[in-house]
Write a structure and sequence with these properties.
It is a single chain. With 86 residues, this protein is mostly helical. Helix content is 60%, strand content 0%.
């Protein structure tokens, strides 16, 4: 694999490359068999990760938004109650 493409391939395969980088990688892949093979390997890895995550998404607990303690602290101060015991 060439140094010209090495650092750009993971982002390119993931779809996170900026348009200029994407164009550079695509042009390079058209001419470089070694980098095409490396890109294919990155795609296999990405596909395996996505398949594994999709299979396990049902196992995740439901999302609960974090509670912001600031409103309770402000309310306690306005009532003259310390926010935390001393």
């Amino acid at each position: 694999m060439c140094d010209a493409c090495r650092d750009l391939l993971p982002g390119f395969v993931a779809g996170h490359a900026d348009p200029a980088a994407q164009a550079r990688v695509e042009a390079h892949l058209a001419e470089c068999a070694g980098c095409r093979a490396e890109a294919a390997e990155w795609r296999r890895v990405a596909d395996a990760v996505h398949a594994h995550a999709a299979a396990r998404v049902g196992e995740l607990p439901p999302y609960r938004a974090p509670v912001d303690p600031a409103p309770a602290a402000r309310a306690a101060r306005t009532r003259g109650v310390p926010a935390r015991p001393a």
